[in-house]
Amino acid sequence: METVEKIISDVSGLVWGLPLIILLVGTGLYLTVRLAFFSFQQLPYALSLVFKKRDDGAEGDISHFQALMTALAATVGTGNIAGVASAVAVGGPGAIFWMWITAFVGMATKYSEAILGVHYRQKNKNGEMSGGPMYYIEKGLKMKWLAVIFAGFAAVAAFGIGNMVQSHEAAGVAYQNFNIPVWLTGACLALLVGLVIIGGIKSIGKVVGVIVPVMIIFYIFAGLIIIIMNIADVPSAFSLIFTDAFTGQAVAGGAVGAVIQQGVARGIFSNEAGLGTGGIAAAAAKTDLPARQALVSMTQVFIDTIIVCTMTGLALVMSQMYLAADEYDSAAQLTSAAFEQFLPGFGGYVVAIALLFFVFSTIIGWSYFGEKCFTYLFGEKVSLPYRIVFVLALFIGAVVSLDIVWGFADVMNGLMAFPNLVALLLLSGVVVNETKKFKKKRQEEQQQVKGSQANL
User: Fold this and answer.
1) Is 45 exposed, middle or buried (0-12, 13-18, 19+ CB in 10 A)?
2) Are 398 and 167 in contact (CB under 8 A)?
3) Which domain holds residue 389?
4) From the CB of residue 381, how many other CB atoms can be counted at a distance below 10 Å?
5) How far apart are CA 202 and CA 413, in angstroms?
6) Which of 79, 231, 372, 413 is most deeply buried (CB count within 10 A of its CB)?
7) Nearest-angstrom CA–CA distance, 128 and 138
8) pLDDT at 53
9) Which residues pair with 122 in a beta bridge?
10) Rounded CA separation 296/51 (Å)
11) Count of other CB atoms within 10 angstroms of residue 236
12) Which parts pass through the membrane (predicted)?
């Protein structure tokens, strides 16, 4: 068993090594430049668009907002708490800067995934939209075999990193902080998730549309309290983040490469830009133009990494808890200790509660991604059986050891990126054309608004 674990660990290190990181960041940078920094220019409009209801007559299953919340549900998770702590513990405060860089170029990646997801989506037998990398790889690149490979990797990852690993993490947190038996946590998760996903994407959209904003606001509010209470330390924390990003002083030997690798890897793990999941969620949205939903979808990267991850990062840097990382059993405990230092008596509970919500939402989001991949491979007939098995796997994950499952799922999660990135690069012309259509439509809308104002 130890040999198998070592093999999986080595393969995971290889998959998530420098080549993938360069490909992920390079693709994001290429798309950012090719789109003439469109993602930066349109960020304010994209954020305002999240809450606008203007898609009543458009095809789709859920609103812009619900599609974004579904994507956020799957990405705002352990990576925002444990992932950031791990990055800072190993790579130093400078790793946070490289997480930000990854997010800024990742917005173009997520934007492109969403455009292609909507552009190549199709209705299934139940009248629901299906889309994502498997569809734009098959229909756009005419590579059915590569689409099947992506769907296979994502289907496995859904049961690992999107299911059993998450329930195991939740069970551990609930037991450590609230002394709740792991089997009870597993049973509760299975029941609650089952009630949500049995109704499909419309049910998922309604639930995450309520849960995700609440959990994110809860965590950000706690982070803001820490920042406000220690406002004098914030400038020095940012200064340390920026200087360490290029010096690597907090890493043994001053290895700047280690700082960059940790920041980029954990940033990607947190926001999933380049893995393809954003295109699956976007395909379900009601939208008149692919680019309009894509703008909404790209805000997920901004919210996930630039806002939520920064709250965790600042708490870790200001508390200097990352210097004592070896004293804690897990990265999540390190973040918990940092919050506890600033909020004595309940800071640790804040992180524990946030983590439980994050895990729950991640499971719901990934249940949809996994289902779309399974139905792509085996047809709509497997939809209900998949949901039942997915729910049962949650209980199993809570009560068994998952070292091998975690490693294997991590490998599958990384392997999803390769076929998706190939498609993004080869179909970037489609992204550019759809963006031009949106720009023309947007100009017409702005002229109409000016005309209406002039008439008044």
Assistant:
1) exposed
2) yes
3) 58-427
4) 10
5) 26
6) 372
7) 19
8) 62
9) 130
10) 9
11) 11
12) 20-47, 68-90, 141-162, 182-201, 208-231, 237-260, 301-325, 345-369, 389-409, 415-432
Q: What is the pLDDT of residues 432-448, one digit of tens each?
A: 999 999 999 888 877 88
> Is residue 423 included in any domain, yes or no?
yes
CATH code at 355?
Answer: 1.20.1740.10
* 302, amino acid identity: F
- Alpha-carbon distance of 364 to 19, in angstroms, equals 31
| 3-class secondary structure, 122 | strand
Q: Which of 149, 10, 124, 13 is nearest to 59 (CA)?
A: 124
Note whether residue 229 is domain-resident: yes
Structurally, the chain folds into a number of domains equal to: 1
Q: SS3 for 261-298, per residue?
A: HHHHHHHHHHHCCCCCHHHHHHCCECCCCHHHHHHHHH
Beta bridge partners of 285: 62
Q: Is residue 194 part of a domain?
A: yes
The structure tokens listed for 397 are: 């994950």
DSSP letter at 322? G
CA 37 – CA 41 distance, rounded (Å): 6
272 occurs within a structural domain: yes
Q: What is the pLDDT of residues 358-391, one digit of tens each?
A: 888 889 989 999 999 999 999 989 989 999 999 9
